[in-house]
Amino acid sequence: MSAPAQHPALYIDGLSVRFGAFRAIDNLSLLVNRGEIRAIIGPNGAGKTTLLDIITGKTRPNTGQVMLDGTLDLLAMSEPQIALAGVGRKFQKPSVFEALSVRDNLRLALRSAGRSILREMGHRLTADEEGRADAMLHRIGMAGVDTRRAGVLSHGEKQWLEIGMLLLQEPRVLLLDEPVAGMSDVETERTAELVLSLRSPERAIVVIEHDMSFVERIADLVTVLHEGRPLIEGSMARVQADPKVRDVYLGR
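^ ABC transporter domain-containing protein, sequence as received from the core. Prediction below:
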């Protein structure tokens, strides 16, 4: 007897959203499977960040469907409910608690998993939770700076710390919005290694990025958006060879 078909981590169908007369997303459909790293690229204004806003509940579409694991209707849920359901998002600008140490940022991420941060500030971590924080410090390559205040970290280090904080929430879908913007070449390569290490049969990763070398390094599949809808989808080699993509980026 064959195994039952697995639902995609993200199922998006017929998605449209308008801001006045501007159609930011235009009848967009997309499937992202668990175990996959999907890159979404396109020129400015293509609808990339708006798509993440819809998935996370920040923006509501006019039409369409967004399902998590084939069972949860994300459009019927609030932003906190979507986060608790297993959708984690890292915005373009890193968001860490700059007055706290690297380790305390990770501790706070563990304390706040499914709970109020303010209520849990005094909550002591269990030995198992401290072990998870230790493991995450090593995973993101920051064990040597665990006592350093987050506010003095480099831009790249803040990005890695925030990714670590999100991972401690155990997301089923991880959304990364321009994770290497503003990074040095060394930081970009280290971020690529980190993202590749996050691949898991239980998790889908969606990355929005303008750095094509980074996309080529990490992506299993690439979706090109143009004027709010997919233009082409496939390997980076296929995307780069498509004349429509060159026309879009060159403005022809």
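The CA atoms of residues 15 and 28 lie 5 Å apart.
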